[in-house]
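Hey team,

Filing this mostly as a record. A colleague (T.K.) asked me to run one chain through the structure pipeline before their review meeting, and I want the input and output archived in the tracker in case anyone asks later how it was produced. No errors, nothing strange. Just documentation.

Input sequence:
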Amino acid sequence: MAASPAKNAVRGNGVARSCETAAQTREWMEAIASFLGGHRPLLEAHVVNFFKDRLWETVDAEWMECLRGEPVESLLMLPSGCVQYHWPSSLQEFLLTARSLVLPREQKSTQSFLPNSRVASIGTVLAQGMNTKKKHEIETLSAMVDAIARSSGAKTVIDVGSGQGYLAQALSFEYQLPVVAIDASSHHASITNTRAERIKKHYAAKCVEKQQFKVPRTVTCHVLSSDTLAAVTLDACQDDHGQHVTKTNVPQLVLAGLHACGDLSVNMLRVFVSCEQVQALVSVGCCYNLLSEDCYEDTDTCPGFPISKAAKSSKLFLGKSIRDLACQSAERWRNLTKEMALQNFDIHAFRAAFQMVLEKYFPEVSKLSPSIGRQGKALRRQRLRKVMESCSSMGKADDLSYSNPKEQNMNADGSLPTGPTNPKGAVGCCSSECCTGVDDSSISEVNVGPSDIHHDACYKFTLFKDFTVSGLGRVGCDLVEDVHLFEIWKDVQHFTEFIGPFWCLRAALGPLVETYILLDRLLFLQEQGSAVQASLFPLFDPAMSPRNMAVVAWKLTGDALEA
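Output structure:
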């Protein structure tokens, strides 16, 4: 293999970090574990408990007082570790230290890792069904896999968690590599096969000389362990005459995975280490929240985290909530518009206030920590559409500012609506499934103070009520009278200004948790000794594809070891 491990080095607070060697990787992980250990309350916080447990009080009061007055644009830069000079020095140190411990995520070209790689542009036929993000991922990853396969002498690629076969088909038709596509869904296999045959006809028609195009072989299997994956991989690899693999007829394989979910990415690492036929690995993981985690009670298990000896000995336990935080993307945060950020903060506030409703009126349901589904996404989408329709009707189709809630609920003459503004009759309604058919007059009877406060309270309370009515329906609870809901909202509304600062601070720890998980995987490979070369490589544009870090590994030959 011509390439050497990428130097994933960062420098922060005067300390240089690298993961070229196992010792350096361990040191980096120890620094992260130490830092995270000092911020467990922030790490373990859950949106539903924000008001109930007064979570903003678990953060330095000076920080919260400072950040509550900051513009949204500054808050959205917190996950990227950006600071302002007028902030408290302890807050600046927190953010800069976190940033210094995070893996560099800026995309690098595949040529910088493997000079013999070439990125083939995917044509319209092969790209059919792909969005821009998927096309970017497939073009880049397939180039890396091809270069790794040729450098390692591997003849067949195993696409693990192949989905609809996009990667497998790019490797088959653009790079003429034999591919076996493994996925748990038979429906995906059917789509892959149908799509591959259609693409094959297109490529055959383009080819002047007669060329044999092979479509990917598909295998449907629920991979629940590394042993299962190894068995399926070897069984699927047959030569052109249908003969199974034997010790005298050993194919050299590359394992590849694009966002193989949860433990599947980890099982790929174990198969790479244990299976002599697998010469190389290119894996981009995702869904850290779905990883199984070792609670250090049963040493016979093979969890998805931790997998390195050093991480196991540290006994750092994350839990689902913290692993879910690892899925946060600093790039996505800083690319949010102000309007979308405020919508996100509102959704957090509504969900936390809804929990207060359950605590007070349905305590038994509250103890079960119910999930009310992803109504937040629908709420934001419907709300945006509502504002667009409202702006359009007032001749302001281009004015989509959410900075002043009062203005959004006003008629053209500046007065508040007094009747239905949509077929369902709900003023400020943001989701058809949440709509209650109750107009603003039912809230106007509640005395909430001066007119400006009244306007804002009506706006936010209507949205909260819609959210709550939908949520209660999802968990099978009866409705709560408006006056009782308003009392709860009035009690918590003052503290909603802490929502944005708190969740942006917490999101700043997300890239750090992801870095620890990725370093754990790298260290597992480094612990195998000098026969294995491994690296972490930022393969995709993180703004387009946040889970952009690839674990790349290959086995060194005897000649390479001697050199």
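Quick notes for T.K.: The first strand starts at residue 10 and ends at 12. Strands lie at 10-12, 15-17, 156-160, 179-183, 217-220, 253-261, 278-286, 532-538, 549-555.
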